[in-house]
Amino acid sequence: MKLPLLFAVPLLGLTSSSLAENIPLSNYLWGEGGPSRARLERRTPPNLLPKSDTDLAERATCTNTATTRNCWTSGFDINTNYYNSWPNTGVTVNYNLQITNTTCNPDGNGARVCMLINNSYPGPTIVANWGDTLSITVRNMLQHNGTSIHWHGLRQLNSNIQDGANGITECSLAPGDSKTYTFQATEYGTSWYHSHFSAQYGDGVVGTIQINGPATANYDIDLGTYPVTDWYYKTAFQTAAISQQSLQVGGGPPPGDNILINGTNKNANGGGSYNRVTLTPGKKHRLRLINTSMENAIIVSLDNHPFSVIASDFVPINPFSTDWLLIGIGQRYDVIIQANQTTANYWFRANVQASCAAANNGAGLSIFSYTGAAAGNPTTTGSTAPTACQDASPLVPWVSLTVPSTSFANQVGNLQVDFGTEVSTNGQNVVYWQVNKSAIDINPSDPTIQYVIDHNTSYPRAYNLIEITSANTWQYWIIEEPAGTLAPIPHPIHLHGHDFFVLGTGSGTFSTSTSLSQLNFKNPPRRDVTFLPGGGWLVIAFPSDNPGAWLMHCHIGWHVSEGLSVQFLERKSEITLPATNSQWFNTCQNWKNYQQNHPIYVQDDSGL
Ligand SMILES: *[C@@H]1O[C@H](CO)[C@@H](O)[C@H](O)[C@H]1NC(C)=O
Ligand SMILES: *[C@@H]1O[C@H](CO)[C@@H](O)[C@H](O)[C@H]1NC(C)=O
Ligand SMILES: *[C@@H]1O[C@H](CO)[C@@H](O)[C@H](O)[C@H]1NC(C)=O
Ligand SMILES: *[C@@H]1O[C@H](CO)[C@@H](O)[C@H](O)[C@H]1NC(C)=O
Ligand SMILES: *[C@@H]1O[C@H](CO)[C@@H](O)[C@H](O)[C@H]1NC(C)=O
Ligand SMILES: *[C@@H]1O[C@H](CO)[C@@H](O)[C@H](O)[C@H]1NC(C)=O
Ligand SMILES: *[C@@H]1O[C@H](CO)[C@@H](O)[C@H](O)[C@H]1NC(C)=O
Ligand SMILES: *[C@@H]1O[C@H](CO)[C@@H](O)[C@H](O)[C@H]1NC(C)=O
Ligand SMILES: [Cu+2]
């Protein structure tokens, strides 16, 4: 028997709470008798990037059923290193999405102006299998806004121009224009898509994504995606303006008015309705939680039912059990709920986490009902929620990858997050969120990719562009928000094009002499959004294995709108550029034409 070259063998010492739930992977992986203890030890990859795991993949010949969720299709399973290999299914899944300017009333408080996808909030869920190609045509039917749709967390390996970040990877789509985004789902799990055009997603341009694949624990029923979000009675463009004014005097954005669970809730006056989910007694249910907020970190729980957490963002993890889960903006957690309590109705709770500087006038509730439970509202009470503003733990990726520590000191870079005054387009001194003393400000008719096409390296300073030239090397970044800043608060930091490895976080200033020992290089949490603690530091790493222009920004809608972003221009000479005369160029021409004809709609924020 050939030994696997690397990683991906389950830990022997799983926490007791998760043991029962855990699949006896070693049995099928190693055949009868299981492996010897020596073989089960996790191996440190020799260096750098994840290597091929074909040895492991060869063994995956089982089928995915309710009791073998670790399996997938021939040659691919939960042990597959999805950064290197995925099934090429040859299947293309097509979607058509139309964005319109309309009204909505998700919690019965009254109708307000909304921008919706296919007239629903949230928009249609995009469902595909691991390895499928997605072909999604977006039509912008708004009268007075551009748009661009970002497929959050999808790595876009060698398909950077499908990333939907206007001003970076494409021009905005003009009113009336449409664009087909085509890319392969090389990873699996739960995510969402949203507009990257200024604050537009806060007005409703969001939907969820479900990519079916293997899992680290078994379940019977997949309940699907379950987005939780803050909700404002003013539009996102109005709230962004208020937030910008408040920032001038060191203040935060206004509080949200309510929290919506799967697009609905009751309002403070009792109107509206609760979302209802049915649980089948005795069964295990998978629920795919997503925080699609603009401002608020949300902490969720289901009364009397602990969550068994099996994935964070697109990364399957060793299952662990918890009563409450804090979900930062853009973060996802896939959980399994066992319906083993009395047949009844139970409250699902979603509250803002005040320690994350979140504020909201409402609280989120929905109802989980066992089949056969009497009608009516639950009478259950919740347990006490933890108060810290940090990622859930322990987030131990199932496919174990280690980051080299030896190159850290030489290669690490530093990015300071702060407030600062800059002169705005209309000549005023305005306070913005800055990274490295510069607020990002993109031009939706002049994306970074156009600079690459033109071989033009005169990037505007406000593009906050950081070049990465070397291939397959580790990029280490210390992101710091020193305690001296006006109002140090936590920021959910999101990177496009990569999962980052979260090496550590801490308070105060990172010091190579004292903080280095606090970093974890051995299979650290990997994900695409994590918290930068208020007045503290965050250290991340990622390999330069995906040529493209990739944003890294705070996912608080108001903060990115106010400048809190950089972009990495990674291996620009190897980026797959748009074909000559392709749709990509039409998008730009249409946007330029629209702008010339509608000079009154000016971008008054970063454009992101
Ligand atoms: C969205 O609406 C368009 C136009 O009505 C329709 O063709 C398309 O099938 C809808 N998409 C989904 C996912 O429902
Ligand atoms: C949406 O419609 C309202 C009028 O109902 C209009 O004032 C606004 O400009 C429109 N917004 C967009 C983005 O088309
Ligand atoms: C969320 O709402 C949608 C639309 O109403 C529904 O199809 C879906 O089943 C709901 N999700 C859950 C987990 O109940
Ligand atoms: C969503 O994330 C924001 C910011 O990180 C946080 O304040 C809010 O509580 C989160 N919401 C949920 C439902 O987890
Ligand atoms: C119900 O399931 C949970 C795990 O989800 C477990 O911790 C608990 O002990 C079970 N309770 C009963 C009564 O079986
Ligand atoms: C930060 O900005 C300075 C110029 O003000 C620049 O020289 C430096 O390269 C920037 N740092 C990064 C990481 O881009
Ligand atoms: C390069 O970009 C700068 C900044 O946008 C622009 O002023 C200049 O004209 C461009 N040069 C070329 C040769 O396109
Ligand atoms: C987008 O539309 C909103 C109103 O719906 C408007 O306030 C804003 O100025 C528009 N932004 C741009 C850049 O067109
Ligand atoms: Cu922020």
Description:
This protein has a domain at 400-579: Sandwich (Immunoglobulin-like), CATH 2.60.40. Helices cover 10% and strands 34% of the residues. 51% of the residues are buried. Residues 228, 291, 293, 296-300, 327-329, 350, 352-353, 356, 358, 492 line the site of one 2-acetamido-2-deoxy-beta-D-glucopyranose. One 2-acetamido-2-deoxy-beta-D-glucopyranose binds next to loops.
Distinctive features:
single chain; 608 residues; mainly beta; Immunoglobulin-like; 9 helices; disordered N terminus; binds 2-acetamido-2-deoxy-beta-D-glucopyranose; binds copper (II) ion
CATH architectural group of the domain at 400-579:
Sandwich
Strand order of the largest sheet: 12-11-14-19-16-17
The N- to C-terminal Cα distance equals 52 Å
Q: Would you state the CATH class of the domain at 400-579?
A: Mainly Beta
Protein name: laccase
GO molecular function: copper ion binding; hydroquinone:oxygen oxidoreductase activity
Family: Belongs to the multicopper oxidase family.
Pfam family, one: Cu-oxidase_3
